[in-house]
Design goal:
By secondary structure, the chain is of the alpha/beta class. It has one domain: Ribonucleoside hydrolase-like (Inosine-uridine Nucleoside N-ribohydrolase, Chain A, Alpha-Beta Complex). The strands form three sheets. The chain has a nine-stranded mixed beta sheet, with helices on both faces. Strands 8-9 form a two-stranded antiparallel sheet. Strands 11-12 form a two-stranded antiparallel ribbon. Helix 4 packs across helix 5. It is globular. Bound molecules: alpha-D-ribofuranose and calcium ion. Calcium ion binds next to loops.
Length: 324
């Protein structure tokens, strides 16, 4: 059993990742912490309650709201992709009586500080907590900056982020989670905590097909199937309209997939740095991934460079409706 803290900025793909994680037999989600990212952190925290509600009020031991601002840069968001509410605008959907289809769900006591929750659990379970990070790394960086020695008791950090040998998805250079808080990402890579990076190099190999998924949601016509249909619709439309894709990439679920099935992936050790000052290259993850370099610096991370897309999609489609 892997004990994890899921740090997230829900987010449509985050919703899919949260469903996989909280319903996994091999993962014990000790806490879910939210962070400013796709949308503001208050909205992310509200979205978490909607997702858990749609999952049938799945219980998570601890929920904590995280940082509302990046360490240094001004906040950016991805509401153009994930909808103004961060969940495909499901909060605007009403039934024939005018009642919201997805009303806000009261969350159990939300801890006010994600950093405190992360530190408390890492200290309580030394060398056992895996931080699964699927949003900007602000919470993690703040925990490291304030308590660097205690945070070394983190078992591993698995982070969805970065782009090495592919274009970024915010600029040509940078992937969103790192772009949104590049200084936080650099703090994480400097932390000496074991890190595995799940970058666009692999997540851009996993496209969720819109038509296939829509049929599956309709077939699983329960509360969760309807929620998935409603919250993914605008994300599919965005990627079709602006990128000519017949689906969207499963960025965050791929990071959960690495945790559950590392055998689906190929990784290489690398020394990863983050561009924090470049205007055109802000948030670029820089590393030499060539294995034959004898003069390379000591690696600070494992970087996923390959994925068995068919195996992952089989796992994802089998599991994402398992609770419908
Ligand atoms: O670049 C993809 C990442 O940015 C995903 O985590 C998505 O949810 C957004 O946060
Ligand atoms: Ca995310």
């Amino acid at each position: 059993m892997q004990h994890i803290i899921l740090d997230t900025d829900p987010g449509v793909d985050d919703a899919l990742a949260i469903a996989l994680a909280v319903n996994s037999s091999g993962l014990k989600v000790e806490a879910v912490t939210t962070v400013n990212g796709n949308v503001g952190v208050d909205c992310c925290t509200r979205n978490l309650s909607l997702i858990l509600g749609a999952l049938g009020n799945t219980k998570v031991p601890i929920i904590a709201k995280g940082e509302s601002q990046p360490l240094s840069v001004s906040p950016v968001d991805a509401s153009h992709v994930h909808g103004s509410d961060g969940l495909g605008d499901v909060t605007r959907l009403c039934d024939s009586s005018g009642n919201r289809c997805y009303p806000d769900m009261p969350l159990p006591a939300v801890a006010a500080c994600a950093v405190d929750v992360i530190l408390t659990l890492v200290k309580r379970y030394p060398d056992q907590i895996t931080l699964l990070c699927i949003g900007p790394l602000t919470n993690i960086a703040k925990a490291i900056l304030t308590h660097p020695i205690e945070m070394k008791k983190t078992r591993e950090i698995i982070l969805m982020g970065g782009a090495f040998e592919v274009y970024g998805n915010v600029t040509v250079s940078a992937e969103f989670n790192v772009y949104a808080d590049p200084h936080a990402a650099q703090v994480v890579f400097d932390s000496e905590i074991p890190i595995t990076v799940v970058p666009l190099d692999v997540t851009h190999q996993v496209l969720l097909n819109a038509k296939q998924f829509e049929k599956m949601c309709i077939r699983h016509n329960g509360k969760w199937g309807r929620f998935l249909l409603d919250c993914t619709r605008s994300c599919f439309e965005f990627h079709c309209r602006y990128e000519g894709l017949d689906g969207f990439y499963l960025h965050d679920p791929v990071a959960v997939g690495y945790l559950e099935h590392p055998g689906f992936f190929d990784t290489v050790p690398a020394y990863v740095q983050v561009e924090t000052v470049g205007e055109l290259t802000r948030g670029r993850t820089v590393a030499d991934l060539r294995s034959d370099r004898i003069d390379r610096p000591k690696p600070n991370a494992q970087v996923c460079v390959g994925i068995n897309t068919g195996q992952f999609l089989g796992y994802f489609l089998d599991r994402i409706f398992a609770f419908a």
